[in-house]
Amino acid sequence: MAEQEEPLLDAFIDVYMNSLKYLDEFVSEPAKAFHLSFEQYLILQEITRHQNVTLMDIASQRQVTRSAISRQIKVLLRQGYLRQTPDENDRRRLYLLATPAGVEAERLIRQRITRRFQGWVDVYGEERAREILRFIRDFSQVTRMKK
């Protein structure tokens, strides 16, 4: 790498260390009051929005292993936000259903996320927010192609 590029690299590292790595914390904070990670909230949201969702459906959609989703679902079951019910035609197939507490938690977390996001849009403006989103999508696509 040429010496003239080092300040740019240093600036990227600085932005990562002082900003980007805290983006996850910014996104996940609304779910913390319910003792959930953002990933667990997204699973709960999927289950409240759709019927007959299985663990494998979620794993396939997120392109992760069954065991990765299973660990997240165990927390949601233990917290009382989900329950499982067997398929009437195939008792081995378990559907995930949100409990009333799960439906309420999803609703309240969604409200908090919406308020938090709207605050972000209010600061940057909708067009700048769309530009940031386009850049992140482009960056993600390019980095996946380079793997």
TrEMBL record:
<keyword id="KW-0805">Transcription regulation</keyword>
<dbReference type="InterPro" id="IPR039422">
    <property type="entry name" value="MarR/SlyA-like"/>
</dbReference>
<dbReference type="InterPro" id="IPR036390">
    <property type="entry name" value="WH_DNA-bd_sf"/>
</dbReference>
<dbReference type="InterPro" id="IPR000835">
    <property type="entry name" value="HTH_MarR-typ"/>
</dbReference>
<keyword id="KW-0804">Transcription</keyword>
<keyword id="KW-0238">DNA-binding</keyword>
<protein>
    <submittedName>
        <fullName>MarR family transcriptional regulator</fullName>
    </submittedName>
</protein>
<feature type="domain" description="HTH marR-type">
    <location>
        <begin position="1"/>
        <end position="141"/>
    </location>
</feature>
<dbReference type="GO" id="GO:0003677">
    <property type="term" value="F:DNA binding"/>
</dbReference>
<dbReference type="InterPro" id="IPR036388">
    <property type="entry name" value="WH-like_DNA-bd_sf"/>
</dbReference>
<dbReference type="GO" id="GO:0003700">
    <property type="term" value="F:DNA-binding transcription factor activity"/>
</dbReference>
<dbReference type="GO" id="GO:0006950">
    <property type="term" value="P:response to stress"/>
</dbReference>
<dbReference type="Pfam" id="PF12802">
    <property type="entry name" value="MarR_2"/>
</dbReference>
<dbReference type="InterPro" id="IPR023187">
    <property type="entry name" value="Tscrpt_reg_MarR-type_CS"/>
</dbReference>
